[in-house]
Amino acid sequence: MGSAKVTIVALLLCLSLGVMAEDPYLYFTWNVTYGTVAPLGVPQQGILINGQFPGPRINCTSNNNIVVNVFNNLDEPFLFTWNGVQHRKNSWQDGTPGTMCPIMPGKNFTYRFQVKDQIGSYYYFPTTALHRAAGGYGPINVHSRALIPVPFDNPADEYNVFVGDWYNKGHKTLKKILDGGRTIGRPDGIIINGKSAKVGEAKEPLFTMEAGKTYRYRFCNLGMRSSVNVRFQGHPMKLVELEGSHTVQNMYDSLDLHVGQCLSVLVTANQEPKDYYLVVSSRFLKQELSSVAIIRYANGKGPASPELPVSPPDNTEGIAWSMNQFRSFRWNLTASAARPNPQGSYHYGQINITRTIKIVNSMSQVGGKLRYGLNGISHIDSETPLKLVEYFGAADKAFKYDLMADEAPADPSKLTVVSNVKNATFRNYVEIIFENHEKTIRTYHLDGYSFFAVAVEPGKWSPEKRKNYNLVDALSRNNIQVYPNSWAAIMLTFDNAGMWNLRSEMWEKTYLGEQLYFSVLSPSRSLRDEYNLPDNHPLCGIVKGMPLPAPYKA
């Protein structure tokens, strides 16, 4: 028998026996503790991971299996979510209060998930209480496999930059304020990787660059409520990736980054070797907040200039400026992402829409306390995670499906406080419209999916607006901003079975109800579509002690 035939026979034998090499595993052990932090100079209780803030980086490759053993050494229940990781067939690992029982104080839980068919810049953060306001977050960098071409040369190095607003009140004080029915108000400042600085202050450099080399900066906005603008002194940025999509590589002097969003830029060290400022300033606040960090040239001489690059306009003109920048972000149709085929081979604009869901956010008082909602429903977490009661066949004991309609009521400010769960038909292609009638910007994230952000425009949406959709090269992403008195449209296929959280990324609003869950059930109850409840998954609430349901089969 020829060698080629032997190889084929051996391969077929391996397939029949299920002996195929698994994708690599990466193992992490994290100790979550309190520690004193002072990002704005005011000491307060922060949340550290292995003593770090921001937390350790998960540096992985597409299709890697990630195993994270989390020890909760806080005095409160705790959960991590993996923002942007799609958890195909596996919402059990999503780490939201609607999918998992929390890790209790003094206990540990091991997350196991795969970054299946994904590349890009993501992050993890705590979804319990107001823990996000105390830190506990860090980067997830997912690289392309070696055989998949990347549409830019390998950078000399990669730097993760976490930016956002910060409150000097501790997370427990902020939670008490919200539980008391009041707003947490304006933030106290802007931080960059857990620190802040003013022009002229003697600070250690954030990062160092060598003259003539190009570097990749992965920016994420992990603030509580403020959009920001990022810019380098004397160095334009080439946008190359945004939330898992390779972009058309336009150059920018500054970039708006809204709460919960991530993007990657290339910066070339081609200026006089000395120090330069990275500038981060708030957007759309009455009073601008800002911070700087030093980017140092190796062997450079001289301090950074006190003359900072100007920030974009910050009024109505500024919103138009930001919208136009959004429209300039385009999918690189010829580039490959996690798979060998080009991104543009998926013609999303030619798929028929089977359902339109129009969501209007609102703010109101319920029982004298501040609440936020979507289409008149202000979500509250049930005692038992929604996914668990659904899996155990006890959903009717915890929540009702579809209390929120696909259209906003006449007065969406009349809020009902209840668990907000919507049914979504498996593999249906849907259009979701976000309409923001308020004076402040919103950002929304959907777990378990990426979607095509086809339009952002001022005013109110109507079916005629579809003619303005970008149906060719809109970015596939997981977060979308909705400007004041404006709307945004996204399109996606509900092809990932599970219970998935759609939420405001502005945590005050999320905590007070501006979120919902999509229940996406496969009618076949097959392991081809969804994994069974993991053996190590804790049970709590009404399902504790219930007999386990019959498992899904292949």
Helical content stands at under 10%
The structural class is mainly beta
Low-confidence stretches: 1-20
- Rounded to the nearest angstrom, the distance between the terminal CA atoms is 35 Å
Assign an overall shape.
Answer: globular
| Strand segment tally | 33
Instruction: Please report which band the strand proportion falls in: under 5%, 5-15%, 15-25%, 25-35%, 35-45% or over 45%.
Output: 35-45%
Key phrases:
5 helices, mainly beta, disordered N terminus, 554 residues, six-stranded mixed beta sheet
Question: Could you characterize the architecture of this molecule?
Answer:
The protein has 554 residues and is mainly β. 9% of the residues lie in helices and 36% in strands. It is built from 5 helices and 33 strands. It has helices at residues 3-17, 171-179, 316-328, 386-391, 507-511; strands spanning 25-37, 44-49, 58-61, 65-72, 80-83, 108-114, 120-126, 138-143, 158-166, 189-192, 207-209, 214-221, 227-232, 237-242, 245-246, 251-252, 255-257, 262-268, 275-283, 290-297, 355-366, 369-374, 377-378, 416-417, 421-425, 429-436, 442-446, 451-458, 476-477, 479-482, 486-493, 498-504, 515-521. The strands form 7 sheets. Strands 9, 10, 12, 14, 15, 16 and 18 form a 7-stranded mixed sheet that branches. A 6-stranded mixed sheet has the order 22-21-26-31-28-29. A 5-stranded mixed sheet has the order 11-20-19-13-17, with no helix packed on it. The two termini are 35 Å apart. Mean pLDDT is 95; it is low at 1-20.
